[in-house]
Structures are given as structure tokens and as C-alpha cells.
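Usage example:
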Amino acid sequence: MEKVKKKKSLTTFDIVTFILLICFALLCLYPFWYVIVGSLNNGKDYLRGGVNLWPRLFSLDNYIYVFNDSRLWIGFRVSTIRTIIGTITGLLFTATVSYAMSRKDLPCRNIIFWFMLFTMFFGAGMIPYYLVLKLLNLIDTFAVYIIPSLFNVFHMIIIMNYFKDVPSEMHEAAEIDGAKELQIYLKVYLPLAKPVLATVCLWLAVGHWNSYFDSMVYTNSSDLQTLQLFLVKLIKEANLAASDANVALPSNITQSTVVATVRYAAIVISSAPILFVYPFVQKYMGKGIMLGSLKG
Amino acid sequence: MRSDKKSMFGKKSKKHRINITLLVMAMFGVIHLFIFNYLPMFGIVIAFKDMDYKLDIVRALFNSDWVGFDNFKAFLQDRDFFNIMRNTVLLNIIKLIITFPIPILFAIIIADQRSRKFTGIIQTITCFPNFISWVVYGGIVISLFSSSGVINEIFMRIGLYDTAKNFMTEEQYFWWIAIITDVIKGTGWGSVIYISAIAGVDPELYDSAQIDGASRFQRHRYITIPCITGTIVVLLLLAISGILNSNFDQFYILQNDLNSARSEVIDTYVYKLGFSLRRYSYVTAVGLFKSIIAFILLAGSNLVTKKTIGRGIF
Amino acid sequence: MKKQVALFLVVLSILSLIGCGKSNNTSTKSTVNTAVSEENNSTTGVNTADLPTIKWFVNLSYFNYGGTWGEDLVSEMIMEKCGVNIEFVAPASDGNEELTAMLASGDIPDLITIGDPSLLHQMVKEGFLISYSDLAEDNEQLKTSLEARPDVYAYWQDSTDNKTYGMPNYAYSQEDVPENSAYVSNAAFIIRNDFMDAIGNPEINTVDDFFAAIDNIVETVGTYNGQNLIPVQCIEGVQNSMFGVTQMFATPVEDESGNYVYDMTQWQYKEALQFINQCYNKGYLKPENFSDTRDQVTENIASGKVIAAFVSPQDFVDAFKELYQSDNDATYTSFFIKNSKGEDPVLSDISGMGWLTTCIGKDSRYLDEIATLVGYLMSDEGIINMCFGEEGVTYEVDADGNYVATDTYQAALDADEDSAYNLNSVYLFANYAYSSQFEPIKTDPDEIAIDAELMKEATKQYAHTYPSYKFDPDDERADTMNELGTKITNYRAPMIAKIMTASSNEEFENLYTETLNMITAYNGFEDLCDYNNKAWQAGKAVLGLAEGEVWWPNN
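Running the assembly step on the lines above writes:
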């Protein structure tokens, strides 16, 4: 944004914000560091408490426990493919609708908008939705991860607003050059919307990567289980109804895996890819893109 | 001329022909929503029937009694209703006032920094808490705020008081804990949209402002904020309409018997009374009630923002 | 930048390809697997592919079969004796989403195990299940098994048509209970042996003696490993500990005529609350007990700071083990506090009419095979096989008639490589009363020190089999009563917490009276008591008591 201004001097404001940012980042870092440390600590030793800033009894057992389960790899495959396909298709689908909604000369624009907005507030619950999916034969298929999430009204509104802020001269200039509506959309508006598309792309990707509820209820076969669902199950399996004090579980079936540290390992495993991807997405958000488009 | 008429079919149109391409593009979304959102809406009748505890939903839809508003009354006339509404609404209003501007300020500060590498790292780090589930994050919060936790140590060291308190068991602190922990968890991730909106501002505007001798604050006040107003308004309107919603995961983990007077919100209450007992109609009725209120709030606040600053959700 | 993206995508693709490969790989666990399973496969020669696969849905998010079907001993036994494969499915959520979705769409599993009897009744009412009674008509094995434990079979009859649709696990028939045997209690008061030794092991049978001992310990011992001591530890939320505390103070559950009474109306209950309140005000019970999670409670115990705890010890086996490993003297033993009238505690034992119930889907394709399967699992042979394994392979019978692990199996257990046998994984028809008769007494001091059962050995004298409330699901008040009960509980919970943390006697009294008045004045409270009383009488009848007969032992 301010790429040319290297010779600005360091004001107090700069210093204050710098320190504020560092402090805030530390506050954010602490819980995550806590999680990483816990995941690298031996589970039984962790039980005794007092492990704060560094692993006391270093151990990779928690990760081994997670990675040893063959279901993890299925989850990885399913989630990866789902995230890639789902993000790209969802982004293109929604962005196309957003473009149309951003144009004033869309027929019935108001009605369509309220038609869409209404769905953000009114829904009927899981079972009716399940029955509709069943009717469409989407239950227990990979498509159930992709097709229902092709369109999202909130994302549509965000992208639409962004398109609305593009100066109308851009559109007129392209029309004069003889471009059709679709071409204008693809060749002019889409490239200009990189920051917002990157943001929605991030939201979609994270949504797909983290999802487990649809996998849990709308699919049955173990080949379709997402990574996050696997991790949720793993944690549940390691935690034998510990809080139900009125159920007397005979000790011959109490298991001995420690749930807390496995949970931490699961968090690290599932969030690492996203945190790896995020810096790339940031690049799209740091660019000034209008520069030069309107000259001449 | 016909084309100059303002009608509900869109603003004044200069073209005579209907723009079919746009219509087709929009229809993708319309059809998708019809299938996946409007079709399932038949289930809303569950709120008006007596279908609690039922398992075969399809059969029950046809066979169970119509009870009108009874399920709604069960919720609205509950003796705890007032307390729970107060906890939900008041907390959300305070939360909105405090936490809504924070990601915006954060985004502006980030955008203003000189080193891209530095802000890149900061942005990534501040997103970390978003990926920690509330089960884990809540556990950390509980131990931090306990009598032997870090917060007490710090406060006692700087002399605020002498004997350690357990903040989690004293109800007056609950709202503050809920808000602060939310800020830390959500600011980084929530600022992403504002950062991308700021990225879309034409740098030429800043250049000319610089030349005119505008200060940093003036630049942000007259350029940045107006340029991202569209985004701010959308998010603000949606936040206002969500005044009856709470983050279930957060409240469930931080709630305990001693702070429940302040920590019981609609979503946790309905979970205890509805979900665990399999009271299907009750849960649907409360959901419908919340939806109606949310929609009214949205339409209302949209009207207000359109009249005052000319921008709305649409 | 493009290079980094490309690299990232390559890494992800590799990981997903591993996924492709591993999905065909069925076992990644121990290497002992291959040796044992080859041995067994050659003797039985049964191929998993030839047998029908039964889908068994266990509605517990933490259920995990654990082994690999077809390659461990348990699965081989089942395949051989029943001629079926079993595919266990457990949901990921604690709510009933997956089950309700399945039932709503007509996709009913062959076998369903659930924990909630009212859910069972609902499934019967809506016609999803077939009864054991009907199935047993054509299957001798099942008939024999059901007739072996007729009281359990009768207890689980559904009121719709008086047929039995669900059979439980951990339910004990009168036939299973050996003469003169006693069970340990569920919850207990436990205290540290080493700390008690340090102050000379005084008597701690009254509230005052207990407090004196705690003070003494704090003064004498001071700290443990440099950390402050925690005098009293409850289960997280404290109220979960209350059923143990109220039973310790002998709170009656019925009056002299044998009718149900609401616990808060009894002076013993009030005294139990006062005890907790005193613990709180003396600083023995820290406020953290109300806000901590299970992890923190476990941590407290494992770190060795806790002097006395009011918990169910079997839930904290890990913590005891961890503590013992770092300090061989740090063990717990149970103790008892009697109320001001010196009444004996009346603790509930770990017995009963069942924990989980298993029922059968009506439209299953394999009803015959299922009948054989459940008949087998419920039989004495099945119970023993699932628990101890196969004679000669995993256990041998010693001179006293007890079942002792063979050397091979013991070695596998010690090395933590027993997944090839996977015993105790199918506990859905387990009968602990029956199988525990064959267990030898533990002799290893390390094991004895941390065994939760042995910790509670002394509770046997006070443990009783409480009658379980047998609610009539067809009572038209059922739904209303459930909702009312939940509402009262939701009101009561924060009030009890406030009472426990009251800072003065006056405040305690005021809050207690206020709460009690509010509850008894609740619209429908009398109906609720009557409804509960009916269930109480029915529960007593199951134990063989006559109408009007009083069960309460302290009379």
C-alpha cells in the first residue's frame, strides 16, 4: 500500500503500535505454545501438572498414537481433495453469482437479494436437510462435501460489495472495447478482486479442512471420513466417559491413554497445514491492484 | 419512457433489453438456495407440532398433533426466560460495542506498519488462537484465572489486592472473561476481511493525501475508513442481527454452577432443556423465534444505516 | 512464491497418496499380530469374506473395538462360534445426531446399543425393533441364554407388549451373585496413607476428628514436593461428588412407610451440605473445585498434593498409577465419616440392572445369525470368552478354580502388545458379577497399591444394592415429569453451589430454606414425588421386596 514511503521517520506512534502488536501477538502465541508443548510431552507425566513453557518429558508418543492409526491417512486424503476441489468450485460459483448481484442492471435484483438473504436466517434443522440430501442421493457420497457448499450467501455479499466498489468506468471502458458481459466479468473484474477472493478462498479452505459435522452425519463409509472427524473420534475414544460419575465402570475396561496430550497433538496436526498456507494468501492481500488500470 | 421508470425490478436501467447473462449467472445461486435451503424448510412445521421425543421424523410429521404456539410459549413463559434473555442480549450488546471495532483498528494498524515481513508474522501468529478448540482454550483460561493462576499472580504483584480470587467462580467477572478471551481468540482471524478490504484501496489516494500534507490519522479518517465502509456495514448489520446467538462452545466450557446466573445463555439453556431430552419441537421453536428476531433486527438496522450513511447490506 | 505453492501441493499430494495406500492396509499395530493370527487362521481356516457382516451400532462416542476384525482372538472366536463378522460403528458426537439420522432415513443397523432406556422405549413404540422373545422362538441357544437369567430378562420387558426388546450388560441376575458376597461401593472417601502415617493414624470417623486430622497434616507435613497441599478434592463441579457425600451421611431415600422422600427434606442431607460448606470456609475445599475441568482434577491427584478426595476412585486410575510410580508411599485408602447421630453410611454399590442395552433392528437380513450371536454372547461361555479368552490360549484354570493368564498372554500384557487378543473389547453383554468370580486375588504389591477396588475394600461393610427406579414409560405424565425434573435440577444446581459457598451459618440457613421452599412450591412437585414413588416401589419389587416393605437398612 505505501510501498514508496521508506523515508518516513519513526514516530512515537510507530513505536507504540509496534509494541502493542508484539504484546498482542504474545498473548495469542501463548495458548498455541501451550498446546505445542503439551503435545510434545509424555501424556502420563503431563497428568501431574506443572508443564508450562517447555516439555518436561519430551515424547513423540502422542503424534505416534495419532499417526499410527490408518484412518488418519484416509482422513488426510479426503480432506485434502475436498479442500482443493471445494474451495476452487465454491469460489468460482459464488463469485459468479456475486458479480451478477453487483450489477445494477440485473433484472429482479431486489427480489433475488432478499430471497437469498432470507436463507441466512431461516433454516429448518438437521433432519429435514438430511432428508433432502437423501432425496438427491447425496448421502454417503463424496459429492455431499462439494455440492451443498458451492454457494454461500455471506461470501456472496462480501464479494458483491467489493465488486460494487469498482468504478463503473472500468465496465464502460470494456464495453466500448466490445467485450460481452461474461468477458468483462472474467477478464476485468475477477482479476481486480484478488484480495477479497483470497479472503473468501481462505474461509472456504478452512471451512472444508476443519469440517467434521457433515462427515459425521451425512456419510457412513469410513473411506469418506474427514481428517477432523477422525481426530474428534480419536479423542473421544481416548476419553472413557470420565465425567459420568453415576455410571460405575468396572476397572477392567478403563483404558489408559491420556486424552489431554493427544488432543493437543490433534490440534497441531490439523491446524499446521492452514497456518502454512496462510502466509501465501497474505501476499494477495498486500498488493495494490488498481494501480495503472485506469490510466489512459 | 419505459426505461426511465424506477421499478422494483432494479434501478433505472439505460438498456431496453433485459440482461440475460446476468440473470443466468444469478440463477445459479437462486437454484442452489432453493434446493438446499428452501426445500428443507418444510421442517419448520416441526415447531408447530408436538414432535418431541420422536424418532421417525417423516412419519411424525404427518401423524403428530398441531399445537400452534405451545412450543413457543414453553420457552417464552419459562420462569428463567428473562434472566437468560438478559444474559444473552446484554452481553452481546456490550460485546458488540467493545469487540466490533477491534479487528478494524487492528487491520488499520497492520496496514500502516512499514515492514511487510513483520506484519506477515504478526498476522499469522494472531490467527493461531482461532484454530484452538474452545475445549482446550477454555481449559487454559480456567487455569489462568484460578486462584493459583498467572492472572492472580500478576494482580497481586502489582498490588491490586492481597488474597487470590478465583475469577471463574464469581459471577460478576464472567462477562469480562468471556469478552476478553473472545478478543484474543477472534481478532486475528476476524481482521482478515478488513485487511483485504484495505488492500483494495487505490494507493493513488494515499499518495495524493501525502502530497497534500495529511497526517496519518487524517489519511485513515478520510480515505481508509470511507473506502472500507461497505465491508464494515455488512459485518455490523450481521453482528446486530445475531444478538440472540452465542458461541455455544465457549459458554459450555466456561460455565459452572457458581457463575451460571451470568453464564446461562439461550443456546446453552436450550441445549440442556431441549437437546439432551430430545425435545425436538421445542428446539425448533426456539430456533425459529431467534430467526425471526434476527431478521427483523437486520431489516431494521439496514433501514437505519441506509438513511444515515447511505449504505446498507445491499 | 510459485515454487513454495508447488512444493506445498506436492507434499499434500504425497500425503494423500499415502492415504490411498494405507486404506488397503488393515493393520498397523504390533508385530505379535502376525505370529498369533497365522497360527489361529491355520487351525480354524475361517475366511472373513465368506461370512455375513453384522452392523453393530454402539451409541457411545468413546466406544472403540480396538483390534482388527479377523485378526484377533475375539473376532476369531465369534467367527467360529457364530459364523458372523461384526462391523462396529460408534458415533463421533455425544448427542444422538447420527442415530436419529439413521432412524429417520430408514437405515436401521442390525444391532443397536444405547445407554438411555427411554430411547429404547421410543424405538419400540415406533416399531424399529424386533423382540428377543420373538427371536428366541426359533433359536435354541438364545432361548437357553435368556432362561438362564430370567429376572434380568423380565426386568427389561417393555410395557408396550410385555416382550423384551433390549438386553443389558453389567446386569446381575440373582443366580450370579454368590452367597455372602459383597460389592464395593461406587464412590468413596479416600485419604493418603503416607500423610495419615505422619500424624499417627488417628481415628477420623466424625466430622470434627476429620478436620482435626487435616489441620494436623497440613501443619506436620506442610508441602508435598514443594507444592501446597490440597486438603479436600471433589469431582469437578463438586455436585458430582454429592451423591457420595450424602450417602456417607446416610441420607434416607424413603420414609418409615417405605415411600419416596425428596433428599433436601432430610436432615442428613442438610448435614452433608454443611460439611461441604465447612470444608469450603475452612479453606480445605478450594473454589477451583467448582470451575476446574476433569483434566485439572486428575492433575491434582497425580501431582500428589491431594490429602483427601471424595470421588469415584475407578475414574482416576491413571492418576493413582502415575503418582505411585513417582512415589511408592503415596497411596490412598478409604475412610468413613458418620453423621452426628453416628448412623452407618449407606453407600450404593456397583451392581445393578444394567448399564447399556442392546436391541435388534427389525428389518435386519440376518436375524438367525443375530439370534445365535447374542445367544452366545449372553451365555456363560460367551461371557467368559469375551473376558478371559480361550482356555489354554490366554488362560488356565488353577487349583482354586480361578482363571489365570497363561505365560504367553501375560507376557503380551506386560509388553502392552495384547491387541492380537483384544480381550474385554466386546463388553456389550458383559456380566461382571459372573466373570469376577473366576478372577484370582491380586498378589503383586504394585498392582495392589493402585487398585481402585482394593482401595475401596473397606466399603464393603457399608455398600448396599440400591433399588433402581423403574419408571413406567407409558405413564402419560412421563414427558411432563421429565421436563419438570430437568427444570428443578437446573434451578437447584446453582442454588446448591451458593449454599455450599455460603460465608455464614445464617446465610446457609436462609439459602437452604429458600431453595427447599422454592422447589416444594414448584407447580407439579407433588406429582413428581408421586411419580418417583411409583418408580421406587417398582424398583423395590424387582429386588423381591413386598409392597410397603422398607428397604432402607438403617432402621
